[in-house]
């Protein structure tokens, strides 16, 4: 049962990627339109899939729910607003540094630079 769901989700992901890759962008109306029928995604040819104003965006999770996939969150990566591993590490593992601490750390131990060769034996550029 789980393997069948996994295969179904994989096929739906392939269709989903194909839908977004093959869309036609209408620059006048600022919207993306489906080029073909995607029956497994419940999207017909000519359906607006992306627009800039007054538009409810397509959601892969809703499509999985329509196919009655149990626990669709397992197959979808988390929303960037919720965060992933990087946010977890930043919030829980590393200690937060203030701007002042970064400033003091950087300028307290300056890196010694090598001296450059002098031009004109240190006299600078002479224009005679």
Q: What do these coordinates show?
A:
With 128 residues, this protein is mostly helical. It has helices at residues 2-21, 60-66, 85-93, 99-108; strands at 24-26, 31-33, 48-51. The radius of gyration is 28 Å and the shape is elongated. Strand 1 (24-26) and strand 2 (31-33) form a beta hairpin. The longest helix has 20 residues, at 2-21. Helix content is 36%, strand content 8%. The chain has a three-stranded antiparallel sheet, with no helix packed on it. The mean pLDDT is 83.
Helices and strands in order:
Layout: H1 2-21, E1 24-26, E2 31-33, E3 48-51, H2 60-66, H3 85-93, H4 99-108
Antiparallel strand pairs: 1-2, 2-3
Strand order of the largest sheet: 1-2-3
Strand content: 5-15%
Q: What percent of residues adopt helix (DSSP H or I)? A: 25-40%
Question: What's the alpha carbon Rg, rounded to whole Å?
Answer: 28 Å
Please outline the major beta sheet.
3 strands, antiparallel
Distance between the termini: 90 Å
Number of helical regions: 4
Shape, principal axes of CA atoms: elongated
Number of strands: 3
Taking pLDDT < 50 over at least 5 consecutive residues as the criterion, the unreliable ranges are none
Looking at how many chains there are and whether they match, the oligomeric state comes to: single chain
Which structural category fits the helices and strands? mainly alpha
Give the integer mean of the pLDDT values. 83
């Amino acid at each position: 049962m789980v393997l069948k769901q996994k295969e179904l989700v994989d096929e739906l992901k392939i269709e989903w990627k194909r839908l977004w890759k093959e869309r036609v962008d209408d620059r006048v109306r600022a919207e993306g339109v489906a080029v073909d029928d995607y029956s497994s995604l419940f999207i017909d040819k000519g359906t607006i899939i992306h627009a800039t104003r007054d538009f409810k965006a397509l959601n892969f999770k809703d499509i999985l729910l329509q196919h009655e996939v149990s626990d669709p969150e397992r197959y979808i990566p988390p929303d960037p607003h919720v965060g992933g591993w990087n946010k977890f590490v930043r919030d829980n593992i590393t200690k937060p540094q203030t701007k002042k601490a970064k400033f003091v750390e950087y300028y307290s131990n300056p890196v010694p630079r090598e001296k450059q060769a002098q031009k004109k034996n240190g006299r600078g550029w002479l224009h005679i």
